[in-house]
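Budget justification, computational time. The allocation requested in the original proposal was used primarily to generate structure tokens for proteins on the priority list. As evidence of use, we reproduce two of the resulting records. The first is shown immediately below.
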Amino acid sequence: MERVARISEIIAASPVGFDDAIKVGFERASRTLRGITGLRVLEQRVSVDHGEIKEYRVRCEVIFVLEG
């Protein structure tokens, strides 16, 4: 059986932390994409305001298998 996968890039954010931002991104992606087989975190950043971290951001690749 042949399988074809596709990759979509997403950016997700959370005021709690990087782990939570990854979960937020995965939960949102799983509402629209079927067959998700993995996530790859490409980048982590924080948003800073007045010397405090306000938001944790992740840029991820979502890998999913195309239905055929």
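The second record produced under the same allocation is shown here.
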Amino acid sequence: MNLSRSSFVVLAFAAVFALAVLLTARRMRTTERHTFTWLAVCFVIAALAVWRHAIDEIAAAMGIFYPPSALFFGALAVLLWLVYRVTLTVAEQRQQLKRLAQEVALLSAEHPREDASSR
């Protein structure tokens, strides 16, 4: 297998990015779901760097005549998918925050605090 200099650069980027993802996961700053997604992205980047003709074959299968366009389409599709997942997470957290605020309001109404001025 004859790898070009650009393939080595892309492989190094994928490896450093995967390491950063793993270190972030180790510090518990991301969830497992997001960690696996980003590691899958790193794997795909590394695979495309090693198997350079994959882009040509994917483009031909999609009916795209200019292979880099297929690469940009794939990258855009992945980014849209990731943004959609983040949007779902934000919506879920917003609902949880709303429920929590309602519970705090109910508990505050049941057990009012004593103000410092009433002492």
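A brief technical remark on that second record: The chain is about 80% helix and 0% strand.
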